[in-house]
Design goal:
The protein is mainly beta. The strands form 13 sheets. Strands 42, 44, 45, 47, 48 and 49 form a six-stranded mixed beta sheet that branches.
Amino acid sequence: MFFFVILTICSPLVSRPLTAADSAWSSLPMPQSVGAVVDLAVPPGQDGLIYLLAFDNGQKLWRSNNDGGAWQLIYQTGGTGLSAIDRFTVSGNGIVLVAGRTGNGPVYLRSADQGQTFTQFTLPAALDSDSGIAALNERVWFFTSFDGNRSRVWRTSDGVVFESTEISATPLSSLKLSPGFAADNTMIAAGADGNFYLSTDGGVHFSALQQSSLVGEICFAFSADYSVSKYIYAASSTAGSGIWRMKVGEPSWTRIDAGLPGGTMISGIEVSSGGIIYVASGNQVGASNGGLVKRSPFNQSWETARDGLQAGTTLWDLRLRGSRVYSLDTANNRLVAYNDTLASPIELLSPQSGAPGIGTFASGGVGGIDLVWRNPGGASAFQWQVSDSYDMSIIRFEGSATAETARLKNLDPGITYYWRARAAAPSISPWSAVWSFTTVLGTPVLTTPAIGATVQILQPPFQWQPVTGAKTYELMLSSSADFNPVTAYAAGIGGNAWQPPSALLPSTGYFWKVRAIGTNTSSPWSAVSAFTTTAPPATTEPPATTPAPTTAPATTQAAATSTPPTTSVKTTAPTQSIAPPVAASTIPGALIGILVGMGCLSGLVVSLVIKTRKQRRD
């Protein structure tokens, strides 16, 4: 085992790097005097990190940490190191493996720090430029070899000791691990004769799949959901040989390239996590040929992406990181990249998910709601859908738009709707996340007391027309047109009627309004109505001979029935006007005696008259 420290050499820029906003192909900056580029690696999950292998007075391995903004030479053959580099790869966790030869036989170099330092290990067999290579991490990796008679797949679980399984009598030029290899131990090796070999135990045993009709330089890819779908996709560099799909475990391949130009050569194939199939055409770019073709799960037609590629460009091999595609242009010895902005769902902006009570109610329906989303870049048309179910199983409204907005109308009041959008041109993107909003309710129409009425009772009933979708109602009552202060506020009214719990003031003008409350929504307040309470009945003045004591005024209060707190309105009943008592006169005592004597004499006379009349009758 040997340990190397590599001196890195910076290379100046020759052109600007591709920005995230670009949606066409663009040439990435390259190292000066790079030589002929023959291979590249793009580690997943490490944005901006690229490795290039090139021939220039020996073989050189370059690294960029900013998508080509600057390059560092991390290894070159010669001296006491490797005399030749056969293959290199980068594992999912960023380990760089370089297989090559020295004067003492085949070896490989391993770096865990992006090529700053390398450690050398012995290999049991030599690789060549057509060998397959794949790595899970710094210890678990695989490669193929061919000794002229038999091909083998080599494996190691510690990075030091290797074992092999004999496969066939033809070379195996392609080797890939499944997306879930750490869990399912699945890998596939492919040969130039169209045969594919499957292992589900980490390379210990292999079984032959149904032979394909492909010949030549084979490329293939697992579907991102292979653990469920079991799909693999394959193609070759032979003109017109097509693009094929197989469900592992089934006996046949299905051709899926209908619509591609005849004579198309395939130099690379990748499948994104969203199920988009990307294929690099090895044909020179022209008006109707070459470039990148892709197919999404949402559109079964193949779409072409050639914008930014000059005529004659020849794409060879393909690497994918997220929605960013990399390829080598062998005709111009350059690295090109394509940012597929439509590979990801578009971003929704408005109305915010869960927005309550939005829109304008008129003529029995709700309108004035604008759906708004963001153009990810490159989209020229969009599609939108609205449903009243979260799973979007029943579409109530849908349409297309060339701008990033659509106006809705004729929605039902008080209903929760769900919506989504996607790009529709030049390619179809996945659907966005599903957002929701709830429409406003209709405004209540007040009926009783009628506007301008004079009510004869001080606890009058209040009524209004029911509103579709309303669960409860709120009512506000005040003696002021601006509802300040509030006399009564009632919430949670279960029907379309209400009566105050205590008497209102007589001879007073009142104003009132109502709004409807629904599930996660409400209506605007109704138009304000006004009425007046009747005057109190007239009072009768008491007789002067029966004086009544003056009493303290009585107080009446209309109390609020719910929050918000109300201001108590007090009034004083009118006070009656009562006449004062009359004073008695003073009489002399002698006069009193005379009057008493006269009274007695009168009594005696009356008695004698009665007695005389009685005797005459006898």
